[in-house]
Design brief:
globular, Aminopeptidase, 287 residues, single chain, alpha/beta, 8 helices
């Protein structure tokens, strides 16, 4: 008769993660100041609350003309042993309010579904959270879901939640971490993002060594990818060593990015599992 599962034996379930991806998309576009945004925010908080030791909303506003966007970062904590260095895991949960790259100009003002660009990273981290509840981590873990990453249209109105978080860093924020963005693509390839290699080379080496050891070398090719502007950049500005795991080649000719084609059928539970396995092994390796 087998005993209770140990921490190392608890598997990441890509199917459960994929359900979280689908659930987010069911709320509709998660654009600030909309019902879909509010409902998804509440879903994330309610899902995390029984899993983490502490969950809080970091609410903020962003002025926009004569109005303001109501936004929320969501922060969950597992204390671990405070004598050990903790880790930061993050993803953005909002979606693009405009389908900028639709071929038909008449459709470009339509909000995107955001299955990969937003929901995929969040889905992986919700499944990681479930496993951290059942097998508490040795080192402290902080999961942050950033709002306002994709508002736009220009870079001056993007990464809003990450910028706010960086300007209001909690005293216990871990100094090393992993950002997940666009990691659900069925044809998953996550090269080593160039800004991440420069700002967090040790984290990069650790994560890609784990991917190779677990047999995910094809999904995590050991080559330098393009430099991406993403939520990790404001964190780098505060000295945090955070890498961006991102597959920025989405669809034939990258033609599903910021379009209405960003739907769950383009994503795969297997891709979520590959990323989840690697991230979870990295977290569990903190000793």
């Amino acid at each position: 008769m087998g005993g209770p599962q140990t921490e190392a034996r608890r598997p990441f379930d890509g199917r459960l993660a994929f359900r979280h991806l689908e659930r987010q998309v069911q709320f509709g576009p998660r654009v600030p100041n909309t019902a879909g945004h509010r409902d998804c925010r509440d879903y994330l908080v309610e899902t995390l609350r029984p899993l983490a030791q502490r969950v809080e909303r970091q609410d903020f506003t962003y002025p926009l003309g004569g109005d303001s966007l109501q936004m929320s970062n969501i922060v969950a904590r597992w204390t671990g042993q405070r004598s050990l260095p903790g880790v930061l895991l993050c993803a953005h949960w909002d979606t693009r309010p405009t389908a900028d790259y639709e071929r038909d100009p008449a459709r470009r003002r339509t909000p995107i579904p955001g299955a990969n660009d937003g929901a995929s990273g969040v889905a992986v981290l919700l499944e990681v959270a479930r496993l951290l509840k059942s097998s508490p981590p040795t080192a402290p873990v902080m999961i942050v879901f950033f709002d306002g990453e994709d508002y736009g249209p220009g870079l001056d109105r993007m990464f809003l939640g990450a910028r706010y978080f960086a300007d209001h860093l909690p005293a216990d924020v871990p100094r090393r971490g992993v950002l997940l963005d666009m990691i659900g693509d069925k044809n998953l390839r996550i090269p080593q993002e160039a800004n991440s290699r420069a700002a967090a080379p040790t984290v990069m080496k650790e994560v890609y060594a784990i991917a190779a050891r677990l047999g995910y070398g094809s999904q995590f090719p050991a080559r330098t990818g393009p430099a991406i502007e993403d939520d990790h950049i404001p964190l780098h500005g505060k000295g945090l060593q955070v890498i961006d795991l991102i597959d920025f080649d989405y669809g034939p000719g990258h033609n599903w990015w910021h379009t209405l084609q960003d739907t769950p059928d383009k994503c795969s539970p297997n891709s979520l599992k590959a990323v989840g396995d690697v991230v979870l092994e990295w977290v569990r390796g903190r000793r």
